[in-house]
Design a protein that fits this description.
The protein is an alpha/beta fold and 258 residues long.
Length: 258
């Protein structure tokens, strides 16, 4: 079984080299023509695609349609085309329509690719999802089956981004505000301590505590606004926090809150 990796940027190179390290037969291609690569390189995308049983496209949403259209012309019968690029569910459904029934897999990389790339969690959906998991079961991969509907894996990734990117944005805004007050070192330690002590019960406390005390917390955020205004700091996150609390106050239910 041969695996073609189209796109040898940071993520593609790590995933490809991780597969090679496990003994997989991997061929890579990148139009940028990498000067050094730990995986064998094809001379063209056509060469990589035509000889592969599994094709992994790891580029970007901006070129995913073009890559898929090209791959569809050269994919051999029975082979799988797997799109690992970030994209909307509707984009994944569109890509699926380019391939024969059962040939497309929507693969969502759920966390940043670490140094040990083969262990990064990936959710898979689409008509070829089950086949992909079966073909790769001999490798130490972290694949989770979602459904046969292309786009349902992508939807999970994008939904998770609200949490992951939103949390990062709150921390950054918090540290920017702290810097205006000369408290950035103290503020960073507070964040570190909060993360060190967090667990499942912390999440429940956030949900239930906000549901119970939304009005009081909204008043507190008004004090935050006043303080930051006096500093001349224009927060990027306080407004959305106030809006969320106001929706809770006006009976917008919080899922799973006590």
């Amino acid at each position: 079984m041969r695996i073609a990796v189209l796109g040898l940027g940071e993520a593609g190179s790590l995933i490809a080299s991780g597969l090679v390290a496990q003994g997989a037969d991997v061929i890579g291609f990148d139009p940028a023509d990498p000067k050094s690569s730990s995986v064998p390189l094809a001379k063209s995308a056509e060469e990589a695609i035509a000889g592969a049983d599994i094709v992994l496209s790891i580029n970007s949403a901006s070129v995913s349609i073009r890559v898929a259209e090209h791959a569809a012309q050269h994919l051999k019968p029975g082979a799988l085309f797997c799109d690992l690029n970030t994209g909307t569910p509707s984009l994944k459904a569109r890509l699926s329509g380019l391939f024969p029934e059962g040939s497309f897999v929507d693969v969502a990389v759920m966390k940043p690719v670490p140094g040990s790339a083969e262990k990064v969690p990936m959710s898979v959906s689409g008509a070829g999802a089950s086949k992909l998991i079966k073909q790769l079961e001999g490798l130490d991969l972290n694949l989770s089956y979602v459904s046969e509907v292309p786009g349902e894996a992508a939807a999970r990734k994008l939904l998770r981004s609200i949490f992951a990117k939103g949390m990062a944005a709150v921390v950054i805004d918090y540290l920017w505000a702290a810097k205006e007050m000369g408290l950035e070192k103290w503020a960073l330690e507070e964040v570190m301590a909060e993360f060190d002590s967090s667990n499942r019960q912390t999440v429940q406390r956030y949900l239930s505590g906000t549901a119970k005390h939304a009005k009081r917390r909204s008043v507190e955020m008004s004090d935050v606004v006043a303080m930051l205004s006096e500093l001349g700091y224009d927060s990027t996150m306080v407004g959305p926090i106030e809006l969320t609390l106001n929706r809770v106050i006006h009976s917008k239910k919080i899922p799973f809150a006590d």
